[in-house]
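Researcher: Hi, I'm a grad student and pretty new to this. My advisor asked me to get structures for two proteins we've been looking at. I'm not sure of the right format, so I'll just paste the first sequence and hope you can take it from there.
Model: That works fine. Here's the first sequence with its structure tokens right after it:
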Amino acid sequence: MEKIKTFDELTIQDNFLFQHVMRNERLCTYLIEKILDIKIRSLRYQDFEKTIDLRLDGKSIRLDVYVEDNEGRVYDIEMQCSNSPKNDLAKRSRFYQSMIDGELLDKGKPYEDLNPSYVIFICTFDPFHKGLPIYTFTHCCKEDNKVQLKDEETRMFLNSKGSENAADPDIAAFLRYVDGKAAEGHFAERLDQEVHFVKSMDKVRREYMILSDEIRRRQREAEEEGLQKGLQKGLQEGRQEGRQEERESNIVAMLKEKIPVETISRITHYSLDQIQELGKMHGLL
């Protein structure tokens, strides 16, 4: 069973705590402004209460922090602490992007009016192994990269290991803080204060305990289901092995009665080679 952290062990890297910290609009706004080098007057949280009930185990498909600014741009900010062996982070970002578009279309928007959207993954590892603090991807023409698709879709990956190459001091300090280093500078220190404030709230602690119990329950059910399937598989394999031994015993008996190999093959559906091998093993051929 995968170990679940205690509430006191949580850091900014953990989805549950990250979501609550980003509920602070000033901090969330400032982080987006710094990442994108833009100005935002205000943010509106999209279905936050529904979104907060999500991914203690890091495996849910719901959005961590989903906000819209005063100009209609939407942002999904995700904390990513592990990269799968298949290195599927890019396709994961594609799926999150499709979730955002699906949500917007469900609200009745025609596709030509889809909001500009940004999927931002904050990674505790270097997702592309180039040492960049931020990797930004937009669609452009393969034959001429000056030709932009202009679908207003952007995916960004922050690399907590790339703080040394970050030009903006606040971004550098933020990446170091995500990487587990001490909070330095006004923004990182303010984030750290918010982390401690959130962790001081009894309501948040109780919520985490409820989620932890639910995750443990699901883990137990999954383990029990896996054990049951394992037992069933073992019984099935045992039955198959028993049936095979019985068929081979019958073949040996028929060989002893001098029944032709071709006839035995038609009856048992064993090949001629298999029957001959059995006969040799028992000294009958």
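Researcher: Oh nice, that was easy. Here's the second one.
Model: And its structure:
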Amino acid sequence: MRPPRAANGLSARDGLPYAGRMLRRPALPIPAWLLCLALVAGCSDGGGTNPGTTLDVETLSAPGPYAVGEAQLTLVDPSRRTQANGSYPGAPERTLPTRIWYPATSAGNGATPSSDGPFPIIGWAHGFTSGNFEGQFVGAHLASHGYVVVGPSFPLSNGGAPGGPTIADMTNQPADLDFVMRQVAAGAAGDALAAAIDDTRRGIGGLSLGGGTVLIGAYHPTWRMENVSAAMALAPASCFFGSGLYHDGSLPMLIISGDADMLVSLAGGPGRAFQWADAPIELITLHGGNHVGFLGIEGKDGHNADAGIGCAAIGVGGSVAASGIGALSTLLQEGVGPSAFDASTCLDACTQEFPASMPAARQLQITRAAALAHFDAALRGDRAKARWLATELGTQIDDVTVSLRR
């Protein structure tokens, strides 16, 4: 049985108040679809969804009209160094093995890009001890619906990082995303793919440490990315972020998190981001969803799969990942001060096994549907999908709760 839900969509065990606030004058323009949704009654549909189309999880999670092509290449940024890490002395450049998923004329590696573009581009950030393959779980779905998704393996947080994976380099990862997105749009993976990209419509997404990277890239005054119009963070590792990190951001943000997540508690990271970040922001709570369910990993014998997989990567209380917390805290405070760092809720990680009642396939289905609706709304002006995500998703199915501040 899941815990009772409060009116704000967070479960009783999370104990978070709803923090509504008025829409500030944004640092970046808010897209017309959001202003229509938030301020004007009865706006007409525009962009993307055909009149009469039924929007639901099943429809939006189904593969799109395009075959998915894939490309792999290694990009090197000579303008930024890789810091020393344990026995690793560092390097004067940042090496970024990168995977790309894109709309194509046929499926597979090296397939010819579709000529129907140009398409929006999404940068995908992977989690701690993971790698660029992780983008396939949501990225391939977006590619089938007309997006180019670019995912690097970060130099020091990937599973094979020299000196061992660390979170200390996290603030450098938004710039890694920006670099690979711009390089691919400029032709690093071929002129045909570059011609298929509209670099003026840019979004970012990520899971776990990658979700935290997305929050930094969206909100931090020193480390944020420029010219990003939409962001999505899945179970963002952000328990060490203080309120000061969320500094005058205004791009549409979607956070998706499970209330059975053993690595990233709803209250400790996603819930605080929802409270502290500027509107527009939406939080989808997956009831019975966990952390590795975003990767399609199912538990066995009724156990939460986080316990045997995710928790092995970070340790009880995050002890394995904690070695980089000192260096990270200094970087997070750059340009902000002490209010950017607050690790008071981090010790709860992997200390209790929650019943993960949502099947991994269902978790991915909802995530893919919500991701497509969010990016179509923000990057394609699809107002019907914006309304579905904000007002209809939570009423159509009973295994999610949607909380919205706009």
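Researcher: Is there anything I should tell my advisor about the second?
Model: You could mention this: The first strand starts at residue 67 and ends at 77.
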